[in-house]
Automatic annotation (TrEMBL):
Places the protein is found: Membrane
UniProt-recorded name of the protein: Signal peptidase I
Family label: Belongs to the peptidase S26 family.
PANTHER family: CHLOROPLAST PROCESSING PEPTIDASE (PTHR43390:SF1), SIGNAL PEPTIDASE I (PTHR43390)
Membrane-traversing stretches: 17-37
Membrane topology per record: Single-pass type II membrane protein
Family annotation (Gene3D superfamilies): Umud Fragment, subunit A (2.10.109.10)
Organism: Actibacterium atlanticum
Active site: 41, 101
Length: 261
């Protein structure tokens, strides 16, 4: 009898775990996906170690909405168009990893960067200089990347500085961008004509981002087809500057529950 009760207990535990995993899988697929910021390409909007939930209801669903791209969906369902300025998580068409960048070009737009200034449909966006962005030059996050500095050379432990601007799109939406220096092929580009059904993305840390300015063959994103959209980043839930989230002394309480702008 004792053995039978023990077996029943194990069976109930297994069922509970299976149900919990199924509920978590459905929640992750349909509503919100957790996302850690691994690199500095979106500074200072998003910092290495920020943790957020991606709103997967924002743009509808495709096969890339499921883990491992397993959703049996041919075309996007409940599709909604993203807006210029959204911070978007999408599946990279070549390496199958998830990227996060800012949407700057909509279908039919022309996009060009001239002398480091973004031009949308032939018009330069408005830039307003802010106080410089400063951080300690040290290894950041689990990957341990070093930040790039405009005041280089900077030794480890020194103050790393980047120029910071407020960039305002034609519709009036503003956000912060960083500048490190002149970057070949990124600060002066060709004119990009965004095809129908595609989008153009850039990182806010403009000189440290592999984005739509670069083709898939060169490690960039190129024009992103709409089916690769996963969701919109709306709010930072937690943030840690250390190599592990368990290093509580590296937590950034001022970034907890901060809106993504």
């Amino acid at each position: 009898m004792a053995k039978e009760k023990s077996g029943d207990g194990i069976g109930e535990t297994i069922k509970t775990v299976v149900y919990a995993l199924l509920i978590a899988g459905v929640f992750r697929t349909l509503f919100f996906q957790p996302f850690w910021i691994p690199s500095g390409s979106m500074k200072d909007t998003l910092l290495v170690g920020d943790f957020l939930f991606v709103n997967k209801m924002a743009y509808g669903y495709s096969k890339y909405s499921c883990p491992f791209s397993l959703c049996p969906i041919e075309d996007r369902i409940l599709a909604r168009d993203p807006k210029r300025g959204d911070v978007v998580v999408f599946r990279h068409p070549s390496n199958n990893s998830d990227f996060i960048k800012r949407l700057v070009g909509l279908p039919g737009d022309t996009i060009q960067v001239k002398e480091g200034v973004l031009h949308i449909n032939g018009e330069a966006v408005k830039l307003e200089e802010q106080a410089p962005f400063e951080e300690i030059k040290e290894r950041q996050g689990p990957i341990g990347n070093m930040p790039q500095c405009s005041n280089r050379p900077v030794g480890e432990g020194g103050t790393c500085i980047k120029q910071r601007f407020t960039e305002t799109f034609p519709d009036g939406k503003s956000h912060s961008i960083l500048n490190i220096g002149t970057r070949l092929y990124a600060d002066d580009t060709e004119v990009f004509n965004v095809p129908e059904g595609h989008y153009f993305f850039m990182g806010d840390n403009r000189d440290n981002s592999q984005d739509s300015r670069f083709s898939l063959l060169s490690g960039g994103v190129g024009y992103l087809p709409e089916e690769y959209l996963i969701g919109r980043a709306d709010r930072i839930m937690f943030s840690s500057a250390g190599r592990s989230l368990f290093f509580f002394w590296t937590w950034r309480p001022d970034r907890f529950f901060k809106a993504v702008e």
